[in-house]
């Protein structure tokens, strides 16, 4: 018994040692992580680690029995310290003890992998990060992710699908080789729910289009890229989409018809694509009292009312007799916008508006290359920033608020074309009896009686005179033709020629074509009125 007691310390020590070894061999244990951290910094330490910035992506750092350090593309036996895959050496000229050949140098492997990935990055975001992003300014020191400034400003794109709202590098790279028809601007449009329902591969994808307020076409290479991915491959959809590509684009009957003043009347400045937000002067009534920013649109809010003086190039709040002023800076974000005493000689108050790009530029700052910018982030103040037609923070759509839309008149027999969907017009579905077919978009055809309508501004009715039936919103369901009834609230639509929208004022809703980009892809319904929603825009074409 006494002899056994003499051996007890050794038994306990051996048991503790066994437990320690087991814990170290558990990769997620704190001791293992500490050991891995230590081993990644000390050459020859015998514990393999699972990640190391010195190894190429997909490789594991380890040391062999001699203390030589390697990176293993595969798994490492923690007991024998042998790589089951293809190793590379952390210094040049190391001989493989098994094959007796010189092992590849990990630095060369890293350059090869990095160069292959970086070649997929667009010119705007040329720097590859291991997270699968391409960054504008560069990756962090370990190469794992884009720098904080790029992540904060969204100056990156994803090589894979990425998160919702992130730019796709393939689309950005495609933009580099696209040249739009004269007068049209390049935009990327996300495919909508009806397209995704028909083609699941469309999820998260976008299509490049060249467009302005009047016309649009699909970029040929973008269409081919989508079809290669299994989108719009149906024979009918493919034919219609390929007939609307930019290589076949012809601008017919497109009249800009822009008055000398590109911004007539009183208006609010809506930020397209950002929901219901508009430029707001902050509420101050004295010069420089408050800074300008985006706030919820409200046509009754005098802080959002502006007129444009084409002679002096000034944007004026007519309720306060003060002018929009950029604060005096000429560099990115140097000063913030506010209202100031109007002075036609003040260069900080002079702005040119381009109705096609929807951008305000100060002609006196850096050769007219500094534009009004909303700052991007929620609550940000407006400032000048280098003009970029692809920057959504610099887009401002003027929406007139000083005309009674109830007086709007669309004379004569007409077709209603969606100006953002080339050669697609409103079609009643073809039935001759009430409610037997649903309204949809179809290929424009002046001889098609299903696309011929008249508008009565007094009764507020859209009528197909060939069938003596009126457009009816279905009581909040789907649109169809019904027997005309001057008292039916489902048939009363007010047309606004400036926004090109039909609104049912009884319901506070607008006519919406459902969103599909191809003929027959969706049906008409009521949608929340949104002047930036291209599915709610209808341009009369007189017959």
Main beta sheet strand tally, sense and closure? 4 strands, antiparallel
Estimate the global geometry from the Cα principal axes.
globular
Query: From the alpha-carbon coordinates, what is the Rg to the nearest angstrom?
Result: 32 Å
Strand segment tally:
33
Uncertain regions spanning at least 5 consecutive residues: 39-53, 251-260, 404-409
User: Termini distance?
Assistant: 114 Å
Q: Give the helix tally.
A: 8
Helical content stands at: 10-25%
Structural class: alpha+beta
The residue-averaged pLDDT reads 79
**What percent strand?**
15-25%
Major beta sheet, strand line-up: 13-14-15-16
Descriptive notes:
- The protein is an alpha+beta fold and 543 residues long.
- The strands form 11 sheets. It has a 4-stranded antiparallel sheet with strand order 13-14-15-16, with no helix packed on it. It has a 4-stranded antiparallel sheet with strand order 17-18-19-20, with no helix packed on it.
- The longest helix has 24 residues.
- The termini are far apart.
Q: In terms of topology, how is this protein built?
A:
Elements: H1 2-25, H2 30-39, E1 60-63, E2 69-73, E3 86-89, H3 106-118, E4 127-129, E5 133-135, H4 148-153, E6 156-158, H5 169-175, E7 185-190, H6 193-198, E8 206-211, E9 216-218, H7 220-228, H8 235-242, E10 267-270, E11 277-280, E12 293-296, E13 307-309, E14 314-317, E15 322-325, E16 338-341, E17 352-354, E18 359-362, E19 370-373, E20 383-386, E21 397-400, E22 414-417, E23 424-427, E24 440-443, E25 454-456, E26 461-464, E27 469-472, E28 480-483, E29 494-496, E30 501-504, E31 509-512, E32 525-528, E33 539-542
Antiparallel strand pairs: 1-2, 2-3, 4-5, 5-6, 7-8, 8-9, 10-21, 11-12, 13-14, 14-15, 15-16, 17-18, 18-19, 19-20, 22-33, 23-24, 25-26, 26-27, 27-28, 29-30, 30-31, 31-32
């Amino acid at each position: 018994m006494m002899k056994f007691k003499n051996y007890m310390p050794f038994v306990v020590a051996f048991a503790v040692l066994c437990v320690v070894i087991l814990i170290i061999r558990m990769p997620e244990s704190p001791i293992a992580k500490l050991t891995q951290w230590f081993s990644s910094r000390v050459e020859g330490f015998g514990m393999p680690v699972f990640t190391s910035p010195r190894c190429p992506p997909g490789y594991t750092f380890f040391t062999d029995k001699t203390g030589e350090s390697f990176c293993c593309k595969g798994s490492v036996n923690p007991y024998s310290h042998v790589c089951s895959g293809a190793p590379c050496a952390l210094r040049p000229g190391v001989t493989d003890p098994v094959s007796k050949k010189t092992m590849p140098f990990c630095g060369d492997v890293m350059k090869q992998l990095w160069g292959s990935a970086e070649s997929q990055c667009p010119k705007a975001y040329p720097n590859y990060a291991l997270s699968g992003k391409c960054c504008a300014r560069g990756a962090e020191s370990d190469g794992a992710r884009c720098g904080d400034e790029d992540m904060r400003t969204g100056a990156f794109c994803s090589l894979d699908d990425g998160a919702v709202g992130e730019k796709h590098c393939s689309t950005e790279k495609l933009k580099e080789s696209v040249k739009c028809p004269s007068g049209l601007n390049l935009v990327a449009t996300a495919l909508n729910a009806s397209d995704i329902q028909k083609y699941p591969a469309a999820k998260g994808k976008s299509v490049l289009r060249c467009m302005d307020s009047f016309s649009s076409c699909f970029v040929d290479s973008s269409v081919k890229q989508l079809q290669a991915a299994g989108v719009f491959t149906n024979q009918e959809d493919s034919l219609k989409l390929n007939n609307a590509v930019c290589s076949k684009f012809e601008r017919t009957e497109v009249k800009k018809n822009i008055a000398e003043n590109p911004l007539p009347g009183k208006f609010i400045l809506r930020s397209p694509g950002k929901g219901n937000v508009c430029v707001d002067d902050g509420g101050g009534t004295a010069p420089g009292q408050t800074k300008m920013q985006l706030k919820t649109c409200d046509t009754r809010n005098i802080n959002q009312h502006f007129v444009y003086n084409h002679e002096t190039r000034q944007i004026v709040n007519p309720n306060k007799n003060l002018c929009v002023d950029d604060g005096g800076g000429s560099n990115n974000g140097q000063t913030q916008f506010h209202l100031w005493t109007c002075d036609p000689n003040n260069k900080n108050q002079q702005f040119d508006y381009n109705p096609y790009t929807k951008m305000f530029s100060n002609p006196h700052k850096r050769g007219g290359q500094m534009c009004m910018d909303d700052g991007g982030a929620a609550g940000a103040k407006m400032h000048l920033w280098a003009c970029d037609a692809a920057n959504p923070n610099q887009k401002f759509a003027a929406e007139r608020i000083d005309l009674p839309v109830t007086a709007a008149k669309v004379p004569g027999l007409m077709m209603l074309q969606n100006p953002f969907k080339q050669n697609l017009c409103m079609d009643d579905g073809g039935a001759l009896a009430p409610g037997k077919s649903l309204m949809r978009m179809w290929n424009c055809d002046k001889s098609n009686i299903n696309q011929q309508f008249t508008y009565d501004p007094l009764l507020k009715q859209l009528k197909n005179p060939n069938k003596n039936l009126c457009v009816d919103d279905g009581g909040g369901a789907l649109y169809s033709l019904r027997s005309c009834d001057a008292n039916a609230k489902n048939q009363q639509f007010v047309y606004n020629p400036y926004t090109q929208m039909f609104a049912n004022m009884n319901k506070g809703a607008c006519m919406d074509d459902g969103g599909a980009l191809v003929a027959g892809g969706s049906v008409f319904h009521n949608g929340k009125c949104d002047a930036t929603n291209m599915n709610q825009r209808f341009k009369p074409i007189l017959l």
